[in-house]
TrEMBL record, chain A:
It comes from Balaenoptera musculus (Blue whale). SUPFAM superfamilies: Ypt/Rab-GAP domain of gyp1p (SSF47923). The gene is TBC1D19. It comes from the Eukaryota. Residues 251-472 form the Rab-GAP TBC domain. This is TBC1 domain family member 19.
UniProtKB/TrEMBL annotation, chain B:
The gene is TTLL1. This is Polyglutamylase complex subunit TTLL1. It comes from Balaenoptera musculus (Blue whale). It catalyses: (L-glutamyl)(n)-gamma-L-glutamyl-L-glutamyl-[protein] + L-glutamate + ATP = (L-glutamyl)(n+1)-gamma-L-glutamyl-L-glutamyl-[protein] + ADP + phosphate + H(+). One of its GO terms (cellular component) is extracellular region. Keywords: ATP-binding, Cell projection, Cilium, Cytoplasm, Cytoskeleton, Ligase, Microtubule, Nucleotide-binding.
Length: 526, 485
């Protein structure tokens, strides 16, 4: 009991610490001062009256949302004496692996830099700045020569690293048991099995209404949809983050989705935020980074050619270029296993005073990175809001998909979860695919790394991401991947090569995610 | 049901009556689909070839119209040189399908002198006087006439607002015929001299000959009493229409786009039409700007793929085409469900009204059906405008997805027009069962609308008829803006 209390006290202290530096604190203070003018505030009962005032005026709700947001993002402290690295990643071997992966990426970036003799960063001449400012809304037509640039890495390179992960403390003897060598991931992490998943995803059960299932044309709207929409509107008018998160587990109506996501992510477009975005834009205009070319290349290779997202190409540049200059993103490295790469001013290698983070936000984009932003363009057409939402989605979820960690939502756990589900519930299929040299993870890895963006139809993808937000977890990606394999099992049993298996699973654009998930979780005889 | 793939060619069996030149001298029954034949294997008969018939081939022109050809030689030679000739053996062909009629030849079929008499088991894919709808000047004329008629009847549809604009029937931008209405146009132009107008030749397609003007001097040629008119006779001066340019189109990603929707009409009286669910938006490759300095830049203003594909930034993978479902999702997410539903309802309304406008003058031959390509532009107030209707919408494909879409379009069209893949009987009631609709949805069925009337409980969700969920059949007109008759 005492332990819990002291844990709670620690958490509260941490959250208060964090919020004290935020804009909300300043606003609350201002509001409190202003409220002294009000007649109902009396000196004798000052504290209670102000609290009451906050409750009525909705400021308490805002504070509640902020606290909830912090709770969702920040991991609970394990032990007061735990060093900060443990907050990032408790397992040493994972930390080491992430460290060496980062070294490799940076090496690759530096060598490209030297090869092409392009500086990592340079200040733009005034003429170029003006030109870029004019072209800000149509950077897609700019088309610099990108032929020499290569993406720093692609998901499959990352997969190879994950396959080679080993826990040095885990020795299961010389006999390589059947199970351990069945899948690609060889680290012993705890993942949920189907009964646990059923409990975790209880709102997706067959007895609860779902958007994505119960809003289809054959179902009369009175049965579920109308009521659900009504509740959604109520949640929005109450502006309650936690309620929104609970609500969205059953899917979000299209018209309410943009606001619901903003509420859950605790994003409100304040003038300061717009100003901040403009500041980032100025940074982009003034300095040119090597990373920019990587971003251009990535957008041109992926989103520009995508049937759903090509329309929003210009937005992607506006978001990603600013993103790479945003130093506030560095904050997420406190709870991510990754660390931002450091770069040194020319000639001062190794001297810490001359070290800067490169890129400024510490995130080096890889092939397909822009696909994290693309689906959001369907919801937000105002660049600064789009930017904020993306940034928050990144520091809450997406960063876990390309860093090595033991977190249950980290990509390693997702891969292991996927493989375990497949092995346990579709052993025949798994064995068959393995025999023909088509390890299932090799096919599904790219889906999970991109959170299925670019593989599913957009409306289905948004329904999936609703659930990611609702459950504050990426595990659903692994479950969906397994469900897709289960769905196409019959065809997959017939194939005889990796290429053929890839072909069977090449086109996911016709899939409906919610029925698939429901069948896999709740309707399959285990 | 016929399913077309790239490897099949449709063999059209026709019954020759000797070697008459273009069939002028004899009343020659027209060919119909009876067989699907793979280019490299033996024919797999689907229907019965009429006795004494010989195979022939169809060819798709670059405009997407299909001609029947009688020899492989004709696949690559101009139409004017074709004659009926002996048929050598089959050569392989990429794609073709069965329609005998192109917009050019349909005239021959139904003209009084050449007078083909279509027999009961022959149907063709154009209405004889489709140009009433598909020529830009006639379409506007018919709509204007329709509106006046409704006004005279005192119909609530023809209601006007305070400024004299039709409340429900204002879906075509102000248009004048040139040179006929030149003076009327000048009057209108002078009312708002900073407006931009768009000049379109009446009979052309693919954006050919279109240009924008914002000064009267740019169209001096068409002035009736211009000096130049004495140099050319009226007949050689090509007929143009001039419409108020919609300079505030809805922009997505900063680019202008228009909607291409396919509508199949199986009969005009009673009106029965179907809307293809998989329409698409055609985007310009260049950012939109209403600036007058860019009026000449066709890449900014004209969305025709024929034009855009020559642009620098044209992408061959998606071709600038965006599915209508994406548009719907985007608008619902960013603008809300009600206004999106209202927009799509209005689009359906516009299409049905345009068909109703020409229905009285259309030659409702029972042998005919037609698939139109509707071009619609949405302005930034989410109001749809009917730009034009195409009788021969392009059936060639610019991208892989496009190919699939167009094949399915043809397949579904044929399934509705020629049910069961059997030899058709034009006397049938033209009411196909629901299962064959494929990706089509009933847009308007006059018989059903009149039959059920007020008793019908309209269960369809507002504005949901053609959403990403698809498949909702709008049986009769819904009470959208006013009662549908």
């Amino acid at each position: 009991m005492l332990q819990e209390e002291s844990d709670l006290a620690l958490i509260i202290a941490q959250i208060v610490q964090k919020l004290k530096g935020s804009n909300l604190y300043a606003q609350l203070e201002r509001q409190a001062w202003a409220s002294l003018q009000r007649p109902e505030i009396k000196l004798e009962s000052l504290k209670e009256d102000i609290k009451e005032f906050f409750k009525i005026s909705g400021w308490e709700k805002k504070l509640q949302n902020a606290v909830y947001s912090e709770l969702s993002v920040f991991p609970l402290p394990s032990h007061p004496a735990a060093p900060p690295e443990h907050l990032k990643e408790p397992l040493v071997y994972m930390r080491k692996a992430q460290g060496s992966w980062e070294k490799r990426i940076l090496k690759s970036l530096n060598s490209m830099c030297t090869e092409l003799s392009i500086p990592l960063a340079r200040k733009r001449p005034v003429g170029e700045q003006k030109e870029l400012l004019n072209k800000w809304n149509e950077m897609g037509t700019d088309e610099p020569d990108l032929s020499l640039f290569r993406p720093v890495y692609a998901p499959k390179d990352f997969l190879e690293v994950l396959i080679n992960l080993r826990n040095p403390n885990y020795e299961n003897g010389d006999s390589h048991s059947f199970r351990t060598h069945l899948g690609l991931i060889q680290v012993p992490l705890k993942v949920k099995d189907i009964p646990e998943l059923k409990e975790f995803f209880v709102e997706l059960g067959l007895t609860a209404g779902q958007l994505g299932v119960d809003d289809s044309t054959q179902v009369p709207p009175e049965l579920f949809e109308n009521e659900h929409v009504r509740i959604g509107q109520k949640v929005l008018s109450e502006q309650d983050s936690a309620a929104a998160q609970q609500y969205i587990r059953q899917g979000s109506p299209t018209a309410l989705r943009a606001e619901l996501w903003a509420l859950i992510l605790n994003i409100s477009s304040q003038p300061e935020d717009i100003l901040y975005y403009e500041q980032l834009k100025t940074n982009v205009i003034q300095h040119d980074l090597l990373v920019d070319s990587l971003i251009y290349k990535d957008v041109k290779l992926t989103a520009s050619n995508d049937d759903y997202y090509f329309v929003f190409e210009d937005y992607l540049y506006q978001v990603l270029l600013c993103f790479s200059r945003d130093t506030s993103v560095l904050g997420h490295f406190a709870y991510s296993s990754a660390s931002p790469p450091k770069s040194y001013i020319r000639g001062k290698l190794g001297l810490e005073e001359y070290a800067v983070f490169y890129p400024p936000n510490g995130v080096i984009p890889f092939h397909g990175f822009s696909m994290y932003v693309a689906p959001l363009c369907f919801l937000y057409h105002e660049p600064s809001k789009l930017y904020q939402i993306f940034r928050e989605m990144y520091v809450r979820f997406f960063f876990r998909l390309h860093s090595i960690s033991s977190h249950p939502s980290g990509i390693v756990s997702l891969c292991l979860l996927f493989e375990t589900l497949l092995q346990t519930y579709l052993p025949q299929l798994f064995y068959h695919l393995r025999e023909i040299g088509a390890q299932p993870l090799r096919i599904s890895f790219k889906w999970m790394v991109r959170a299925f963006s670019g593989y599913l139809a957009t409306d289905q993808l948004l329904l999936l991401w609703d659930r990611i937000l609702g459950y504050n977890s990426l595990e659903i990606l692994a479950v969906l991947a397994a469900a897709v394999f289960a769905f196409r099992a019959v065809n997959l049993m017939e194939v005889t090569s990796l290429a053929a298996a890839e072909a069977v699973l090449a086109d996911l654009s016709t899939l409906k995610v919610m029925p698939l998930l429901q069948i896999f979780l709740f309707a399959t005889v285990t | 049901m016929l399913s077309l793939t790239d490897k099949h060619l449709l063999s059209i069996y026709s019954v020759p009556e000797g070697t008459t030149n273009q069939g002028r001298e004899s009343k020659q029954p027209l060919p119909q689909i009876v067989e699907v034949q793979s280019a490299d294997t033996q024919p797999a008969a689907v229907g019965q070839a009429p006795p004494g018939s010989v195979p022939a081939w169809g060819r798709v022109s670059s405009e997407g119209t299909c001609f029947l050809v009688r020899s492989p030689r004709a696949l690559t030679t101009p139409a004017s040189t074709w004659t009926h000739s002996e048929l050598p053996s089959c050569t392989s062909l990429k794609l073709c399908f069965s329609f005998r009629m192109s917009v050019q030849t349909i005239r021959n079929v139904f003209s009084v002198e050449t007078g083909y008499r279509l027999s009961d088991d022959q149907i063709v894919n154009h209405f004889p006087n489709h140009y009433e709808l598909t020529r830009k000047d006639l379409m506007v004329k018919n709509i204007k006439r329709y509106r006046k008629e409704l006004e005279k009847e005192g119909s609530p549809l023809a209601e006007k607002d305070e400024s004299g604009k039709y409340l429900y029937l204002d879906f075509v931008p102000i248009t004048y015929m040139l040179p006929a209405d030149y003076n009327l146009f000048v009057e209108e132009f002078r009312k708002s001299p900073s407006s931009t107008w768009i000049m379109k030749p009446c009979g052309k397609a693919q954006g050919k000959g279109i240009f924008l003007i914002n000064k009267l001097s740019q169209i001096k040629k068409w002035s009736r009493d211009s000096k130049t008119s004495s140099f050319m006779t009226q007949s050689t001066k090509e007929a143009y229409v001039i419409s108020l340019y919609i300079n505030n189109p809805l922009l997505i990603g900063g680019r202008k786009f228009d909607l291409r929707l396919y509508v199949l009409v199986s009969t005009y009286r009673p009106l029965r039409c179907y809307m293809y669910k998989l329409g698409f938006c055609r985007f310009c490759t260049v950012k939109y700007t209403p600036s007058t300095s860019e009026l000449d830049n066709m890449f900014v203003h004209l969305t025709n793929v024929a034009i855009q594909k020559h642009g620098e930034d044209y992408n061959h993978i998606h071709g600038g085409k965006w599915a209508v479902n994406n548009l719907r999702l985007y608008l619902e997410s960013t603008r809300g469900r009600e206004v999106t539903g209202k927009l799509f309802d209005e689009i359906h309304w516009v299409i049905v009204q345009s068909l109703k406008a020409v229905a009285p003058v259309m030659n409702n031959d029972k042998h005919c059906f037609e698939c139109y390509g509707y071009d619609i532009i949405i302005d930034d107030k989410l109001k749809p405008w009917l730009i034009e209707v195409n009788a021969s919408p392009s059936l060639t494909s610019s991208t892989a997805n496009d190919r699939i879409l167009k094949y399915n379009l043809i397949n579904d069209t044929l399934n509705i027009a020629v049910p069961n893949g059997e030899i058709p009987d034009c006397k049938w009631n033209k009411s196909p069962p629901k299962e064959v609709l494929g990706n089509y949805e009933i847009l308007y069925d006059e018989e059903l609308a009149q039959g059920d009337g007020a008793d019908r409980e309209l269960r369809s969700r507002p504005g949901q008829s053609l959403g990403p969920r698809g498949g909702r059949s709008r049986d009769s007109g819904r009470t959208v803006l006013t009662t549908w008759k």
